[in-house]
Amino acid sequence: MATKTPEQINEDLLRPLSVVTPKYFLVLGFFLAVVIVAGAAFGHQVYAGLGVTGLNRPVYWAFYITNFVFWIGLSHAGTLISAILRLSNATWRRPVTRCAEVITVFSLSIGASFPLIHLGRPWLAFWLIPYPSERGIWPNIRSPLLWDFFAINTYLIGSVTFLLLPMLPDFALIRDRATGARKRIYRILALGWRGTPRQWHRLETAMHIMAIAIIPVAVSVHSIVSWDFAMAPVPMWHSTIFAPYFVAGAIFSGIAALIIAMAGLRKFLHLEEYLKPVHFENLGKLLLVMSLLWFYFVFSERLTGWYGNEKYEMSVFWVTQRGSFSPLFWTMVFCNFILPAPILAIKKLRTITGTVIASIGVVIGMWLERFLIIVPSLSHKYLPYSWGSYRPSVTEILITAGTFAAMAMLYMLFAKVVPIISVWELKGGEALEHEPSEAILATTEAGARAG
Amino acid sequence: MVIDVDRCTGCEACVVACHAENNIATTGDKQAAMGRATHWIRVERYYEGDFPDVKVKFMPVLCQQCDAAPCEPVCPTFASYHTQEGLNGQVYNRCIGTRYCANACPYNVRFFNFYNPAWDKPLNLQLNPDVSVREVGVMEKCTFCVQRIKAAEIKAQAEKRDVKDGEIQPACVQSCPTDAMVFGDLSDPNSRVSRMAASSRGTKLLDELGTRPKITYLQRESWNGDENA
Amino acid sequence: MASVDSIYGLFSDFRSADRGLKDLQAAGVRADKIVVMSPEPFEEYEFARADRKTPMPWIAAAGGLIGGVSGYLLAWYTQVAYPSRIMSGGMPLVSKWPSGIVTYELTMLGAILTTVITLLITARLLHWRFDIYDPEVSYGKILIGVVDPSTDMRSEFEQRLLGAGAEKIKGTGRFSTF
């Protein structure tokens, strides 16, 4: 592996910021078009009412809440990579941290928009904010949706800071190279970063504190999202396993999304020297662990349900496993476990292509899992006379597609404005790798001179 | 409230009366096929056995006004709350339409306005002025005809007396031809509803969930076929 | 624009930078008059060890505590503020567990926001006017220099820095070469 000089590293990582190809605009335009169509569909929904969706009684939550949980789950990518690997001193995480943190911020923003999309009267969503209103009424602290409000906002603020703070030295890097208007913008963004030891120490201490703080927040966010379901007396929802189940599933889908994003960046921004097969291998191993963990949770939940044989739960159980939802259920098991586990376990198959295939399967499987948690239970509640079914409408499909396009679009825009690999962290990592022996030489030299 | 299932003929006069009293729109056949029909009280039909030994059971199901209602703590804006008198109130103006309450309700008695309700002319002239018309995006459910309860209480207060037992009759109770439904004050041990609720034929719907519903169903056979009396 | 006088050398690797620092210290320059800037954090070397102590973790913990108390007060107040004391679902008026969740979230938020504000203040960010800075730092050079040196010591410092391996000597203020 040839070591690159700092200048070469700068060149490679900053090139995307100045080079824009027509293909980029074409792809960006396509995603933007999908987002605009989805926005129009949402506008129509606000005007006409939620009747344009496929929702009915008793299935009052379906696609939108599936997407909500899915996108919030995806946001755990950044937390895992940045925070946990940072705290465990895993140096291979250095090129990967910013890609992951960006996924977190954008998918969290998209996920947080779904409570607005699914409301019957979204223009009144501000009533969830505890403000002293003119009528003297406050929101209900007992409601899990309100815990969502606090948790998601805390996580959003935390993730944005976690993303922005390490960008300061890179903004300084761009500031010193840019000219004209760009220089002014980046100068403001760099917030007066100079690189003194004081600043470095403060930044690293702050990142350390943030890493310690953001992990419990991430765990709590997805636990609280799971409690949106677990707190209601619906068969197969009211289970204590939901909180750890969802957190594990979130990390699972987050790693998969990260692998896909990294593969895309590697190909389109020519970062083959930086996002190396070893990164995909390591993430692939983590993905394998999460796949096994996911299987363990699903197995525990289903075994205890089946063994308990409680009549309301069993109706939901069988309709998922053998009834009308079984094609989706078995697809989900295939995508989440049967496909990824062998690919990721066998070293020969754990290549970049292999991990990407496994990850695409996991993303599909996890979306299906969210759907299968929500809709079968709601359509088969306690009184059989009120059982129902659900079919998605065009509006819901368009809005779902729109969120995927929005994610891709935001990611593409970000990669053009900020270096997607953290330059200083990468160079710092290289320095640590190559110079430790030199440190001994330096001290002995100084010692010899002084003595 | 007490509902005598053995007396219920399944005529659904209660359903029609509820529609008329509470300004419930008919959603139309296409919407009903999707599962969006709104009936604050519905009569569930259960058939047992084959012809000629068919037995039919009719069960009017409406909001049970649970004492430990699962729909109440999950509403983020307090649109679903417990009144001082023990009813489960629904504040249409406060509802932002998260539909969590409907998911939490084990009886599926909560309904959502998927579209703005509309009445073909001249039916729009027969709306009850005592009951608000709900707009799109708002949850609604049976209120035990709270407008009638309030009217009787105000009248009794004006006349400086207590509300008499049997004076308040929700629309469904009033219209039942077999007198299968009885409404009254459960906190008064001498009221007709309290005496009937203590009957050995009485069961509560989905009692095992711990919702503490207020409606007692009287029937000779309970759900699993055991004799009640 | 610089109103501060300084002389500094630009080094291309940390070994020579370390030598340069030690030479300056040997020449009797006080620690608070030495200025160091680097493109990466170099924890192992003497020159990067200045200004390590920070009360930031304690401040963050204090921020978290304030957040937690506000969270609990918010949860408590919003339930008791209703004139009619709204009950729901048979739960008590100020329910422990839901209040606990809101308290926890605001604790974490308090810790996070306090950390950010402390960073911005103690790292002296939000100061866009630089007294001493050289863009070569972000190009990969390490800057070691003396702030406000006396004019007669100028050649001494230049010699020491060049001897340690500096590629260039520059200055600001009255030592500015531009």
What does this structure look like?
The complex is a heterotrimer of chains A (451), B (229) and C (178). Chain A is mostly helical and 451 residues long. Chain A has a single domain, classed as Formate dehydrogenase/DMSO reductase fold. Helix content of chain A is 73%, strand content 0%. The relative contact order of chain A is 0.16. Chain B has helices at 13-21, 29-34, 100-104, 146-158, 171-175, 192-197; strands at residues 2-4, 42-48, 55-61, 80-82, 88-90, 111-112, 139-140, 181-182, 202-204, 216-218. In chain B, the strands form four sheets. Chain B has a four-stranded mixed sheet with strand order 8-1-10-9. In chain B, strands 2-3 form a two-stranded antiparallel ribbon. A two-stranded antiparallel ribbon of chain B has the order 4-5. Chain B is globular, with a radius of gyration of 18 Å. The relative contact order of chain B is 0.21. The model of chain B has no long low-confidence stretch (mean pLDDT 91). Chain C is of the alpha+beta class and 178 residues long. Chain C has two domains: 6-53 and 131-175, Alpha-Beta Plaits (2-Layer Sandwich), CATH 3.30.70; 56-122, no CATH class. Helices cover 43% and strands 12% of the residues of chain C. Chain C has four helices and four strands; from the N terminus they run E-H-E-H-H-E-H-E. Chain C has helices at 14-26, 56-80, 96-122, 154-164, and strands spanning 6-11, 34-37, 142-147, 168-172. Chain C has a four-stranded antiparallel sheet, with helices on one face. In chain C, helix 1 (14-26) packs antiparallel against helix 4 (154-164). The interface between A and C is large, with 70 and 73 residues.
